[in-house]
Design brief:
3 domains; Dipeptide-binding Protein, domain 1; D-Maltodextrin-Binding Protein, domain 2; four-stranded mixed sheet; Dipeptide-binding Protein, domain 3; alpha+beta; about 550 residues; six-stranded mixed sheet
């Protein structure tokens, strides 16, 4: 869930993390700071403070990028956006599609030198499912495994293990799921299924909070964690897939977008993701435009409306009015610079069963006004002031949110009270299901409609934070989740998508398209639809 999905353990926990000091401001970089940088050191900024060090707790994309450099799972994403072997060299699937037998690579070692066994995977996955540990992601990505739901919901302590995770021998792990599901392997790419050395954790029910507790198998190891200053990773020279070409990765925390751009211009950063408001100036810069690259992502930004906490938003007509009052083309072209594609579906273009034509509500102010009046709020009279939440630190998000706020005031007379929030605090509130109306992103963890339609919007979906419930929608999604017939799945999900677009608890606005500046010094970055893959082949000269 790269909200990519999306997190939170909270900033208070971060203050307990084992750090090795660190200076404020722009200090903390290694080597000489110049237009040529430092050979073997890859530097790209963190726009937000990392939210956790623990693979079983991570929810947001910025932090996942750090976690995936240090920890790994049975499988991984390839540059072709397909699941590939990772710590498992191969697997067998039973004829009925419910039993997966994973054969681990021989000789894989944690960074403490101990060899990885199947028992390590069982221990780590069961830790994610411990009801006393409270992983926010285990239910989303592991509940298909037999016994996971029983373990997560156990209040008595009677369920000691997950019966669907079985150690056959030290190099063989067997996982049994409840029903055949075409996307199950995809789910195992998520961090709550990663493996780490249990002996490094003094208390299995507490979060990883110190560098010395982060003992994985990945291409890098954390050397320094000063959360408000810099994160430094150093190469794992004994990495099982060959030593990385980089010596180290430096992730300075730079909240301000203009500061990140200035650091890139002076050679202090090797890669930055641009705010779209800066694109015009970049395109007019003869030097910088040569470093500009675009990446379409299977992600979308949307407006979410809580169907439970605000009585007015329980009315379908009100939600439809809000959706029809938004001029999404204006937001994309005039506010964000015009490179994004308007979202007229829940599913992004790269996700299976994407449709060009859906039941999306049109921009129609007259109809929106009529619907709002019909619901009892003519010209917005008597409509409650809503708290409108969005994340701090990303100008594009703030600019789009302000445009939404202005349009609803101008077109419907509805007042939104802006509440810009620090990222970790925002996600904590989002996880509470209490936000009234909010601007948010959902980024695919795998390219199957289940990751959007069921996970986000079905009443049984763990990421349904807007309390939306429609029995017909749920039934269509449940059937789509479990059928292996591609044509039938496509039809079921299309019907479900059209229902939710008309019910309008979730208004798609635009699909994500990243604009990045990548220095000519950098080579070998591996890409997938989801973003840059772990930096095993990245080099800096």
């Amino acid at each position: 869930m790269r909200t990519g999905s999306y997190i939170v353990i909270g900033v208070v926990g971060l203050s307990l993390f084992g750090c090795s000091g660190g200076n404020k401001g722009g200090e903390g970089f290694s080597g000489r700071q110049s237009a040529t940088g430092t050979v073997g050191v890859f530097r790209y900024a963190l726009p937000t403070i990392p939210t956790t060090l623990d693979p079983a707790k991570v929810q947001d994309g910025d932090t996942i990028d750090i976690i995936q450099q240090e920890f790994e799972g049975l499988v991984k994403w390839g540059e072709d956006n397909r699941v590939q072997p990772n710590l498992a060299e191969k697997w067998d699937i039973s004829p009925d599609g419910t039993k997966y037998t994973f054969h681990l690579k021989k000789g894989i070692k944690f960074t403490n030198g101990r060899e990885v066994t199947a028992d390590d995977f069982k221990w780590c996955m069961e830790r994610s499912c411990d009801p006393n540990y409270s992983s926010p992601t285990a239910k989303t990505y592991m509940a298909d495994i037999v016994g996971v739901s029983e373990r997560l919901n156990d209040k008595t302590g009677a369920v000691k293990e997950v019966k669907g995770i079985k150690v056959v021998d030290p190099s063989t792990l067997e996982i049994t799921i409840d029903k055949a599901r075409p996307y199950f392997l995809d789910k195992l790419t998520y961090a709550c299924s990663y493996v780490y050395a249990k002996e490094a954790l003094p208390d299995r029910l507490k979060d990883m909070a110190k560098i010395e507790e982060m003992v994985g198998t990945g291409p890098f190891k954390m050397e320094k964690f000063a959360p408000d200053t810099i994160v430094v990773l150093v190469a794992n020279k004994d990495y099982h897939d060959g030593a990385p070409k980089l010596d180290r990765i430096e992730r300075p925390f730079i909240k301000d977008a203009q500061s990140r751009l200035n650091k890139y211009k002076t050679g202090d950063l090797d890669l930055i993701t641009l705010e779209l408001q800066d694109l015009k100036a970049i395109k007019e810069d003869a030097k910088l435009v040569q470093d500009l690259q675009y990446f379409d992502r299977p992600s979308m930004y949307y407006l979410g409306m809580n169907c439970d906490v605000v009585p007015a938003l329980k009315d379908r007509r009100v939600r439809q009015a809000i959706g029809m009052a938004l001029d999404r083309d204006y937001i994309i072209k005039e506010v964000l610079g015009g490179i994004n594609r308007r979202a007229d579906a829940i599913l992004p273009p790269s996700v299976k069963y994407f449709r060009e034509k859906t039941n999306m509500l049109p921009f129609d102010v007259a109809k929106a006004k009529a619907l709002l009046a019909e619901a009892g709020f003519p010209d917005g009279k008597g409509f409650p002031e809503l708290e409108f939440n969005y994340r701090d630190g990303r100008p594009d998000v703030e600019n789009a949110a302000q445009a939404i706020q202005q349009q609803l005031k101008q077109n419907l007379g509805i007042t939104l009270k802006s509440q810009k929030m620090e990222w970790a605090s925002y996600l904590a509130k989002h996880n509470s299901h209490k936000m009234e109306i909010f601007h948010m992103r959902w980024a695919a963890d795998y390219l199957d409609p289940e990751n959007f339609l069921s996970t986000l919007l079905a009443s049984y979906g763990n990421e349904n934070k807007i309390n939306y419930k429609n029995d017909q929608y749920d039934a269509l999604c449940r059937e789509g989740d479990m059928t292996m017939d591609e044509n039938k799945r496509k039809e079921l999900y299309a019907k479900a998508e059209d229902i939710v677009l008309q019910d309008a608890p979730f208004i798609p606005i635009y699909y994500q398209k990243d604009a990045e500046l990548i220095s000519k010094r950098v080579s070998g970055i591996r890409n997938s639809a989801f973003g840059h893959l772990p930096h095993t082949t990245t080099a800096v000269k």
